[in-house]
Amino acid sequence: MAIHARINDEKQLLHRLIAGDPAAFEQFFHAYKKTTYHFVLRLTGSDAVAEELTHDVFLKIWDTREQLDPDRSAGGYLHTLARNHVFNHFREQARRERLTGEAARQLPVSTDEDPLVGQEYEQLTRDALALLPPKRREVFERCRFEEKSYEEVATEFGITRDAVKDHMVKAGKLLRAVLRRHLDVTLLLAFLFR
C-alpha cells in the first residue's frame, strides 16, 4: 500500500510540474537532487563538474516539463537524462581537446618560448575557469584575481565565509586537474617552439 501511495504522490507531483508549478519543481528538485548528483559524480569523478551537470539536468527537466510522462518513473527518467548529459559533456570535452590539439599543431614556430608558455597557460586557465559553475567562477575570480578576502566576498554574495572557502577549494581542485592534464602539452610546446 505504501508503494502505491508513493507512486500516486509522484504522479501528482509530475502533473503539477508539467503544469508549470514552481513549488512542484522545487519539491521535485529536493526529492531527486542528491541521488542525481551522486550518480553524476560517480561518472565524472569531479565535484564541480557533477554539481554543474546536475544543475543542467534539472534545468532541462524544467525547460522540457511539458514532455514529461507522469506514468513513467521519475527516477528512471532522471537517470537516463543524467547519463546522456554526462556522455554529451564527455563528447564535448573530447571535441574541445581535439580542437585544442589541432590548433597547437598549427601554431607558428617561435624563438621566444616564455610568451608562448605564458599564453598557453593563460588560455588553459581561461578554459578551466569556463568549466566552473558561474557563481563559483565569480567567487574564485574575486578572491584570486581581485585579491578580496573571503569575508569581503562572503558579504558581497550574501553567503558565509565557509561557503566561500568551499567554492575556492572546489574551484582549485578542478583548475589543478585541468592544468595538470594539459601540463604535458604545454611543456611539449615550450620544447618544440624554443
From TrEMBL:
Alphabetically ordered keywords of this record: Sigma factor, Transcription, Transcription regulation
Ranges of residues in domain RNA polymerase sigma-70 region: 29-96
UniProt key word GTP-binding: no
Database matches in Pfam families: Sigma70_r2, Sigma70_r4_2
MF-aspect GO terms: DNA binding; sigma factor activity
CDD domains found in the cross-reference section: Sigma70_r4
Swiss-Prot/TrEMBL GO biological process terms: DNA-templated transcription initiation
Residues annotated as domain RNA polymerase sigma factor 70 region 4 type: 126-171
UniProt KW Acetylation keyword: no
InterPro entries hit by this protein: RNA_pol_sigma-70-like (IPR039425), RNA_pol_sigma-70_dom (IPR014284), RNA_pol_sigma70_bacteroid (IPR014327), RNA_pol_sigma70_r2 (IPR007627), RNA_pol_sigma70_r4_t2 (IPR013249), RNA_pol_sigma_r2 (IPR013325), RNA_pol_sigma_r3/r4-like (IPR013324), WH-like_DNA-bd_sf (IPR036388)
Transmembrane segments: none
Family named by the database record: Belongs to the sigma-70 factor family. ECF subfamily.
PANTHER family: RNA POLYMERASE ECF-TYPE SIGMA FACTO, RNA POLYMERASE SIGMA-70 FACTOR ECF SUBFAMILY
Protein known as: RNA polymerase sigma-70 factor, ECF subfamily
Protein's organism: Siphonobacter aquaeclarae
Organism taxonomic ancestry: Bacteria, Pseudomonadati, Bacteroidota, Cytophagia, Cytophagales
